[in-house]
Amino acid sequence: WKGLQLYDYPKIITKMMDLGTIKSKLEKSKYTDASQVAHDIRLVWKNCMTYNADGSDFYRLAESYSKRFEERYAKLLDEYGEDVVCAYSGGKRGSGGGSGGGNGSGSGSGGTRG
User: Fold this and answer.
1) Which of 40, 35, 38, 29 has its CA nearest to residue 84?
2) Helix axis angle, 57-80 relative to 34-51, nearest 10°?
């Protein structure tokens, strides 16, 4: 958030989360099940929609990512159940994948600010 000069970000967003942090937590086996990962992913989209104005490009992008995540997460739960254990393979996905990085500033939240 500092790199993007979003100095009011910590005043608006009290619990910061970004996809880079989620990736790091996965790599370090900090999550015990998929629901913990889902909680943090939801927080990324929630923070983005809280920080950015309703209807802005960033808000709409986070809204779209959130919807897509929920659809895919529901399929994962249907297929594997509630107790999906997290295991990070470290492999790269196809084009369009990637987790970003950063500190809650936007670069780590899939191209969304916040």
Assistant:
1) 35
2) 170
79 CB neighbour count, 10 Å cutoff: 8
Helix axes 19-27, 34-51, angle to 10 degrees: 160
pLDDT tens digits along 92-104: 544 443 333 333 4
> Distance between CA 98 and CA 92 in Å, rounded?
7
Please give the Cα distance from 48 to 85 (Å, whole number).
Answer: 27
Q: What is the DSSP string of 20-51?
A: HHHHHHHHTT--SSHHHHHHHHHHHHHHHHHH
Q: What is the pTM of this model?
A: 0.75
Length of the chain: 114
C-alpha distances in Å from residue 36, one per residue of 29, 84, 86: 11, 10, 9
